[in-house]
Amino acid sequence: MSEEEILELQDKIDQGLQLAEKRMLQEKALHNECVIVQSADGEIQHIPAKHVIAEYSLSL
User: How far apart are CA 36 and CA 25, in angstroms?
Assistant: First the structure.
């Protein structure tokens, strides 16, 4: 594979992962579920998916 082909493949993988994450968050928000994340200091947090979606939409 050439360098260009590798970069194109990486871009497609990244786009696919972003789409999968978006769909997962939408499904969780639909059912009023939380997303479980770990903060930088190691604390486990339960965040409503709707809040995560709202945060993402502000940063886009």
Answer: 11
